[in-house]
């Protein structure tokens, strides 16, 4: 069973083919980072234009690499949302065209379900499980009692983790996207600066990173006014310690309360070295809880994860027709029903 996945929700144009839901046959990602860098973030208009230019090239490359023909495929899976509407539309229209031209079923996929299912390309999922999703637009703890079922038990009330990373990086004059740069700096420094940790109300699995972000910005400005210099390594390490402390602590607490068999890490910030190490240590202290962390290439946006999630939805009989539209605000829980 071969599923072709298409992903264009943000700034990567990606096409991949997956065999039996778990095996990557081809996985092509065209990143637009170079085009957005000088603006310090993703410019939606530019993203859409690049997707249009790249889509057929990336599709052809993924098909060539796979050595398959469209007759070998069982379905086309595509990210229908959430994301930038103009960017999503390019992928959705491409998927609809392929579905129509080759008489293939069309399977809509929620982008965050995709991030979670990147883990199934590493190892079989065991339920019930808990997924910590940390990306550019989301920070969520998601409980899954079975395939295709998503219950959001906690989410950010303001900035996403990735967003906080990118904003702090900007304050330190690091290039976009800043996450990997902060991660690298953090490994070279000590967490000597006292920064807040937003635990929120007792028992809450929600997150908040805007206070931490403001604290970092204030620390930098205050130092500038006093004519002092702060070591960027120390600031990066302190910021990262604060983010990772809260993410890991809440994940462990939820894993215990919900008695899960497995914890999955997902989303672009899952590439963070500090988070990977600390989560692995913490899960190691729990009895009979297994941890999956995808390789870096499957953490950031790609279409292999969309095809992996698409395989599950395909088996569940979820289909879209040619009236499928991009939905920038697609809801994960509603999508799972
Ligand atoms: P969403 O998935 O919520 O729609 P997105 O698709 O834009 O958002 P991803 O591509 O999943 O987000 O992740 C991109 C984010 O991951 C960026 O904010 C980037 O800075 C962050 N990131 C990537 N690598 C690292 C790292 N090593 N450490 C911290 N953050 C990182
Ligand atoms: Mg991206
Ligand atoms: Fe993403």
Automatic annotation (TrEMBL):
Give the UniProt subcellular location, in the record's own words: Cytoplasm
Report residues binding substrate: 133-137, 166, 179, 183, 272
Annotated Gcp-like domain ranges read 23-307
The record's listing under Gene3D superfamilies reads: 3.30.420.40
Checking Pfam families in the record gives: TsaD
Q: What is its EC number?
A: 2.3.1.234
PANTHER family reported in the protein's UniProt record:
TRNA N6-ADENOSINE THREONYLCARBAMOYLTRANSFERASE (PTHR11735), TRNA N6-ADENOSINE THREONYLCARBAMOYLTRANSFERASE, MITOCHONDRIAL (PTHR11735:SF6)
Q: What is this protein called?
A: tRNA N6-adenosine threonylcarbamoyltransferase
- Species: Perspicuibacillus lycopersici
